[in-house]
Design a protein that fits this description.
It is built from two helices and no strands. The chain has about 240 residues and is mainly alpha-helical.
Length: about 240
C-alpha cells in the first residue's frame, strides 16, 4: 500500500513537472509574440507619424494653390477689364475715324471750292487717330495674350490643386488603415497578456500542486520507513 502511494505520488509529481514545463514553453512563446507585436506596433506608429506629416504638408500645398488661384483669378479679372477697356477705346476710335472720314469727305468737297487748309488739318488728325488706333490695337493684343497666359496658369493650378486633393485623400485613407492596424495590434497584445496571465496562474497552481505532491511523497516515504522499521522490529522480537 505504501509503495503504491509512493508510486502514485511520483507519477503525480512527474505529471506536474511535465505540465509545468509545457506552461513555461507556452508562456515563453507568448512573451516572444508580445515582443514581436510591440516592435511592429512601434513601426506602425512611426509610419503613422510620417503619413500625418505628409498629409499636413499636402494640406499646406493645397491652401497655397488656392491662394495662388484666387490671386490669378483677380489678375485675370483685371486683364479682362483692361481688355474690355481697350476694346471700348478701339470702338470709340473707330467711330472717331469714321466721323473724321465723313468730315474729310465733306472737307474734300469744300477743298474743291478752296478749303485746302481745312483738308490738311483733317488729314493730319486722321493720321493721329489712326496711330492711336494702332496703339490701342497693340495694347488689346497684348492684353489678350496676357489673359490667355493667366487662363493657362489657372488651369495648371486647378489641376495641381486637384492632384494635391487626391493625394491628401489617399494619405488619409492610409492613415485610417494604419490606425486600424494599430488598434488590431493593441487588441492582440491585450489578448496575449490575458493568455500570459492565465498561464501564469496555471503555472502557480501547478507549482503549488507540485509542492503538495512533494509533501505527500515525503509523508508517504516517512510512513513507509516507519512501517518497514516496525516490520523489522516485529521480526526481531519473536526470535529473541
Amino acid at each position: 500500500n505504501a509503495d503504491r502511494q509512493r508510486r502514485a505520488a511520483e507519477q503525480e509529481l512527474s505529471d506536474a513537472i511535465e505540465q509545468l514545463s509545457d506552461s513555461t514553453l507556452q508562456n515563453q512563446a507568448l512573451q516572444s509574440s508580445k515582443r514581436k507585436l510591440d516592435s511592429e506596433m512601434q513601426t506602425m506608429h512611426a509610419d503613422l507619424e510620417e503619413m500625418l506629416t505628409e498629409s499636413k504638408m499636402a494640406e499646406e500645398r493645397a491652401k497655397k494653390a488656392m491662394i495662388d488661384a484666387a490671386r490669378l483669378a483677380d489678375e485675370l479679372r483685371l486683364e479682362q477689364e483692361n481688355a474690355q477697356h481697350c476694346e471700348k477705346s478701339r470702338k470709340a476710335l473707330d467711330n472717331q475715324v469714321k466721323e473724321m472720314q465723313v468730315k474729310l469727305d465733306e472737307a474734300e468737297q469744300v477743298a474743291m471750292k478752296g478749303g485746302k487748309k481745312v483738308t490738311s488739318r483733317l488729314e493730319q488728325k486722321i493720321k493721329d487717330l489712326e496711330s492711336q488706333l494702332d496703339n490701342e490695337q497693340r495694347r488689346l493684343v497684348d492684353a489678350q495674350k496676357a489673359q490667355r497666359r493667366t487662363e493657362r496658369r489657372i488651369k495648371e493650378l486647378t489641376f495641381s490643386q486637384e492632384e494635391d486633393h487626391k493625394n491628401h485623400e489617399r494619405m488619409q485613407e492610409l492613415v485610417d488603415k494604419l490606425q486600424n492596424k494599430v488598434k488590431s495590434y493593441k487588441k492582440q497584445i491585450e489578448e496575449a497578456e490575458e493568455i500570459a496571465a492565465l498561464n501564469l496562474a496555471k503555472f502557480r497552481k501547478v507549482q503549488a500542486d507540485l509542492e503538495q505532491a512533494e509533501e505527500r511523497a515525503d509523508i508517504n516515504e516517512q510512513v513507509l520507513a516507519k512501517m518497514k522499521a516496525k516490520g523489522r522490529a516485529a521480526s526481531v522480537g519473536p526470535s529473541l
